[in-house]
Amino acid sequence: MFHPLLENPSLLKDQDLENKIMDLSKKYHIAARLGQGGACHQIAMALEAYQAEQQVRQRKQMQDTIKKQNGNLDDLINID
């Protein structure tokens, strides 16, 4: 779900993205303890957007790592 007040998470650096996630997680827990259900819902939407972007980046890094490892195997196998 897209939160209308969010900046584009894909423009953030990795560290900034992690900081936003940690900050929103803290705010979510504070709102939950205070019984602010509406605020929790809004924070959860923003948190989900940032976490989704983080997962996309991690998945891309994993795919790049796998491609690099698979590319190196070509020189190890000699079929004559």
Oligomer: single chain
Q: What proportion of the residues form beta strands (DSSP E)?
A: under 5%
Count every helix, treating DSSP H or I runs of 4 or more residues as helices: 2
Q: How many domain modules?
A: 1
Which class do the helix and strand fractions yield?
A: mainly alpha
- Rg calc: 19 Å
Question: Describe it for me?
Answer:
The protein has one domain (13-69). The chain contains two helices and no strands. Helices cover 70% and strands 0% of the residues. The mean pLDDT is 87. It is an all-alpha fold and 80 residues long. The termini are far apart.
List keywords for this structure.
80 residues, mainly alpha, 2 helices, 70% helix
Describe, in short, the structure shown.
The chain is an all-alpha fold and about 80 residues long. Helix content is about 70%, strand content about 0%.
Outline the secondary-structure elements.
Elements (H helix, E strand, L loop, with lengths): L13 H20 L3 H36 L8
